[in-house]
Every structure is written in C-alpha cells, then in structure tokens.
Amino acid sequence: AQSVTQPDIHITVSEGASLELRCNYSYGATPYLFWYVQSPGQGLQLLLKYFSGDTLVQGIKGFEAEFKRSQSSFNLRKPSVHWSDAAEYFCAVGARSSASKIIFGSGTRLSIRP
Amino acid sequence: EAQVTQNPRYLITVTGKKLTVTCSQNMNHEYMSWYRQDPGLGLRQIYYSMNVEVTDKGDVPEGYKVSRKEKRNFPLILESPSPNQTSLYFCASSLGGRMNTEAFFGQGTRLTVV
Fold this sequence. Notes:
The structure holds 2 protein chains of 2 kinds. Chain A is mostly beta strands. Chain A has strands at 3-5, 10-14, 19-21, 24-26, 32-38, 44-50, 56-58, 64-68, 73-78, 87-94, 102-104, 108-113. Chain A is built from no helices and 12 strands. In chain A, the strands form 3 sheets. In chain A, strands 2, 5, 6, 10, 11 and 12 form a 6-stranded mixed β-sheet that branches. Chain A is globular and about 45 Å long. The N and C termini of chain A lie far apart (41 Å). In chain B, strands 2, 4, 5, 6, 9, 10 and 11 form a 7-stranded mixed β-sheet that branches. In chain B, strands 1-3-8-7 form a 4-stranded antiparallel β-sheet, with no helix packed on it. Chain B is mainly beta. In chain B, β4 (31-38) and β5 form a beta hairpin. Chain B has strands at 4-7, 10-13, 19-25, 31-38, 42-51, 54-57, 65-66, 76-78, 87-94, 103-105, 109-113. Chain A binds chain B through residues 4, 6, 9, 32, 36, 41-46, 49, 51, 90, 94-96, 99-102, 104-107, and chain B through 4, 31, 33, 35, 40-45, 48, 50, 56, 58, 90, 92, 97-100, 102-103, 105-108.
C-alpha cells in the first residue's frame, strides 16, 4: 500500500528566502506524485504533478519539485518565497494501478517571516 | 467558471440529527470524491464515485453515505452524526474517471457535531 510522509509539520522562512518542503513516499512502483496548496479557508489547489518523463517538474506560482526514485522523495522547492505563499502544503501519491486512490500526507504549514 | 461547489460552508448540528452536505461540479467530471481533513492526519478519503450510480468506500467510510444519481452532484449524508465526525470536509472531482489527473476541490465544509 502506498503512503506519504511529510516530516515537517510547520516551517517558517523569511520572505525572499529559498524554500524546500520534504515529501517521502512508499510505493512498490513509480507512482503519480502531486503537490497541493491550501490557503486559509480555501480548498486545495494543484501546484504541480509528476506522471513520467523529466524528473524536475515545474508548477504554478514559481514552484518546482524533483522526483528522486532512489530516495523515494518528491521535495517541493521555491527559490524566493513571498508572503502570499503562507499556506498549508500537501504532498500526495497516486497508484498507477488504481483509478481511485490518492493518499495525502499530513501537510506542512508554511509561515513567512517579514 | 469551472468549479466544485459545496454547501453549506459551516454547519453546527447535534448528535443524531441527520444532515446532508451537497457537492456539485460544472466540469462534466466522471470522478468525484469526499475527504475529511483533521489536524495531523491530512486528507482521508471517505467515499468516491467513478460515475453515475457507481460508488465505493474509501479509507474512512463508517458513519457516512453517498449517492450519485446525476453526474454533477455527489452529496454526503450523515444519517446519525456523532462528535467524532466533527471535521473539515472536502469534495473533489476529476476528469476521465481517474483520480490520477488533476483534482478540483470545493472550498470545504466545516462541520461541528455537539
């Protein structure tokens, strides 16, 4: 069964600093991988996804993520954060063999220091 | 505008009083799903539907019912709510009957059962 671990519950970075949010997954084959963002009081919005091909994936709002099979990781990065990036971020893994299953991590809350 | 609409956004109810949370999407998506979000647990799937009249249990279906009589609507029914169902609920839909494409989320329903 697949699972997702986001080891950081809460991260605070200064505005303009770089950001990396960690995500590790467990799955027997190459999964589908996603990052979603949830702004306060809002639903989830897809930032980016990895299905196949280039392991460095570009998303919206200047985010990118790199799939590293050897480390079972899919970390999210941004070179320079803005105050509007303060939100909760969820990594998710989907099974290629199942049309129904996406497993979400427990989330990382990002705060931005002025 | 493409969207998933949930109602109500906020609901306080008493133990045992039946309630329904509605979900409607205007994108002609085949796949719809309900999640609950609890602190430290991420999003957990309650039920999903791959098409009209086709529904199945997710990871935490106990105490919930769903129906899919029309493609656009996927209501969540709590026949006898209990305090442990106090949570933030999200409806989601995706194209092509596969959750492994981009999922569109509603804005959430915050339910409190007293």
